[in-house]
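tool=predict chain=A
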Amino acid sequence: MTEQTATGEHKVGSCMLHNWAEERAVAALDQAENRFQIRRQGHKGILTLDQDTKMETVTTHRTDFLPPKGPGVRERGIRSELLEKHIALMIREKIQAEQNSPPAESDFCSTTQRDFCVEGFVPLTPELTQAHDYKSDAGVTFWSENRHHIHGVTAVQTLEAPFRKSAKFSTPISERLDEPELPPDN
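tool=predict ok
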């Protein structure tokens, strides 16, 4: 091999490193066939001498690992098999009866009609106890009703608008004493 590489001659398939045993085995075959045929079909006669034989269709895995076979005798009695078939038939008929039952009559009634439009209900408007102006009156909320229980709120200047801005926390006491009426400290 070293002589061939030094002269520049190469065989059809160049020899892999330390692959001299295979190279010797196919040396006679490489000279008999042309280069194109060897690359396309490989070397003939290495694996088998009979070229007309067909490949086996069964793999070694299938021959070694066969599916388990039954014992060949009856494992259950006739009565239990018939009972199982009868129960399966009853369950199948019950499920088919549920699936094929006629649909219930549809009640085309909206939520508003069902919950708010009750027969015999007469809406009454409550009578006014005071005159209210919705444009100028402050809205009644949870916080406006419970303003005395809220911590951290500045002093209320007017009861009509308890959450307006107030600068009383930063006003000096000497200026606050001149006020006509001091608000209660709650």
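Residues 109 and 115 are 10 Å apart (CA to CA). Residues 1-8 have pLDDT under 50 and may be disordered.
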